[in-house]
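Friendly challenge for the regulars: who can give me the C-alpha cells for this chain first? No prize, just bragging rights.
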Amino acid sequence: MTIDGSLPGSRPDQLSMDESVGQLVSQLTTDLGQLTRQELALAKAELQAEAKKAGKGAGMLGGATLAGWMVALFLSFTVMWALDEAMDLIWAALIVAALWAVVAAVLATKGRKELQDVNPKPDQTVESLKEDAKWLTRKS
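First reply, four minutes later:
Bragging rights claimed.
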C-alpha cells in the first residue's frame, strides 16, 4: 500500500474494492452531473449552429419577399400601361387596383381561417408531462 492507501500500480481515479457505497454514489453523482453539463453544452452548441442557419435562411426569404414585391409592382405597371392602350390610364389603374384588392381579400380570408385553426397549447408535451408525473407517483 502507498501513503494514500491505494494499491501500488493502481490509478487514483480507479475505485478500490474497499470504498464504501457512499463513495460510489458520490462518484456516480459527480459523473452524472458532469455528463449532464456536457450534454447541455452540446445541445447549446447545436442550437446555436441551427439558429445561425435559420437566421441566414430568414434573411434570404426576406430578400426573396422584397424581390417578389418588386416583380408584382412592375407587372402591375405593365398591365396598367397595356390596358392604357385600350382605355384611359385612370381606368387601367383602377382595374389593376381592383385585381390587387381581390387578391388581398382572398389572402386575408384564408389567413384568418388558418389562424383560427391554430392550437397554441402543446398537447403532446402536456400529455408527456402527465405520463411522467404518473410514473413518478407510482415509483414513490
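The chain has a mean pLDDT of 82. Helices lie at 21-84, 89-116, 123-139. Your move, everyone else.
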